[in-house]
Design goal:
Layout: H1 2-43, E1 48-57, E2 60-63, E3 69-74, E4 81-82, E5 87-91, H2 94-156, H3 163-201, H4 210-227, E6 230-232, E7 237-240, E8 249-250, E9 257-260, E10 266-272, E11 284-289, E12 293-305, E13 331-338, H5 340-345, E14 353-359, H6 384-398, H7 406-409
Antiparallel strand pairs: 1-10, 1-14, 2-9, 3-5, 3-8, 4-7, 5-6, 7-9, 10-13, 11-12, 11-14, 12-13
Length: 412
């Protein structure tokens, strides 16, 4: 009975030791975990900034008509791949063709009128020479009549010359003076006409004459209006958000569809203001997208930090100086440029969410760009060929070349 009673008394004495050992093991494990985490954070973690408030962005190019018209053909639909310069929508061209024909006819007429001005100058020069010759002849007649009067005047008193003959010589002198005045006026008028004609033509050619340039500008305007009845894709990409329908009457500037270049995307990562201290332009970043999960990792670099917070540029910015105030941590968009080759291998879509991890170990970069951009952000050359076609057509009309068919000179 004594040994049996002693056993229960010894068990409680052994439990505190076991509990102490268990707590010690747990404490050691926690301490090791904390030390490991601290070491990882000191070596690696503190040099990384992460956020899941990041979304794919890109250039969304709206296709809008430059002229009003009725839609007669839709050549691309949602999700279609298109090349730069490929026609997407066609508008009715009947009115534009009529206006272009009128403008071309007016240009041809203006060219002929200007050429007549140049040809008229030669005629006016001949008229001036003729009037000057008449003036010289009349001056010779006046000199001869004056000599006749001067010779006969002394002879009238002696009777050697009759009064009737002297009066006849005097009349011829008066007539010669009148003829001289008329010839001088005619010569002056001819010179004034020549000056007027030269003012209209001097210092320019038929091609550069203001009247021809004005008519040519009208042809260019109408030709552009005709060509703009076909809407090309400014860039290579994929069609999205088509809103146009056949037979629809569209106005200039109305959005018809959009084209997105899926090979030139970037990510806007919205970091908290407390994370910006170590972020620099050029730092490497790793990204994952929910659409692929962690199986696909994208690589990029920080291209720039936003000039303001998202709230500052919102449609209704916060008015923190009114009413009660509660501090809200702000976020600043940070643009991360993606690797184009990785985008080709694993395409993304605009608006997809991303997780971004930026390595901030190298802090030698800048927080703000300080070098002005020297190249265009985006450019297209799909409209240059149209200008060359129009210029060649205008030169053909000015040169008086043969008229070519509508389909040959301006594709519609």
């Amino acid at each position: 009975m004594t040994e049996a009673a002693a056993s229960p008394a010894q068990a409680p004495a052994a439990n505190p030791n076991g509990r102490r050992r268990g707590l010690t093991v747990i404490a050691i494990a926690v301490a090791l975990a904390a030390a490991g985490w601290g070491g990882w954070h000191w070596v690696h973690g503190r040099h990384h900034q992460t956020t899941d408030n990041a979304y794919v962005a890109g250039n969304v190019v709206q296709i809008t008509p430059q002229v009003s018209g009725t839609v007669i053909a839709i050549l691309a639909d949602d999700n279609d791949a298109v090349k730069a310069g490929q026609a997407l929508v066609k508008l009715d061209t009947a009115d534009a063709k009529v206006a272009l024909d009128q403008a071309e006819a007016q240009l041809a007429q203006t060219v002929r009128e200007v050429r007549a001005l140049y040809a008229g100058n030669a005629t006016l020069k001949a008229q001036v020479a003729l009037r000057e010759a008449d003036l010289a002849r009349v001056q010779a007649d006046l000199a001869r009549a004056q000599d006749d009067v001067n010779r006969r005047a002394p002879l009238v008193t002696s009777g050697a010359v009759g009064k009737e003959e002297f009066q006849h010589a005097t009349s011829q002198l008066a007539s010669a003076k009148s003829a001289l005045a008329a010839a001088q006026s005619a010569a002056l008028a001819a010179k004034e006409q020549l000056t007027t004609g030269q003012v209209m033509t001097d210092g320019t050619s038929v091609e550069q004459h203001p009247n021809v340039q004005r008519a040519a500008a009208r042809v260019r305007e109408m030709a552009l209006a005709l060509k703009r009845d076909e809407l090309p894709a400014p860039i290579e990409g994929h069609v999205a958000k088509r809103a146009v329908q056949l037979g629809q009457r569209v106005q200039a500037g109305a959005p018809l569809m959009t084209v997105v270049a899926l090979d030139k995307l970037w990510v806007d990562a919205n970091f908290k203001e407390g994370q910006l201290a170590d972020l620099r332009i050029g730092q490497p970043a790793e990204l994952t997208a929910d659409v692929y999960g962690t199986k696909v990792t994208y690589h990029g670099k920080v291209a720039g930090l936003g000039a303001g917070t998202g709230a500052a540029f919102s449609l209704l910015p916060a008015q923190n100086a009114t009413g009660n105030w509660i501090k809200i941590v702000q976020r600043v968009p940070v643009r991360v440029q993606l690797d184009p080759q990785e985008l080709i291998e694993h395409p993304l879509r605009i608006g997809l969410s991303m997780e971004v991890n930026v390595d901030t170990g190298d802090r030698g970069g800048k927080t703000l760009a300080d070098v002005p951009r020297v190249q265009a952000v985006a450019a297209t050359g799909v409209y240059e060929a149209v200008d060359r076609e129009i210029d060649e057509r205008i030169r053909s009309i000015v040169r008086g070349g043969p008229t070519v068919s509508r389909t040959a000179r301006l594709p519609s």
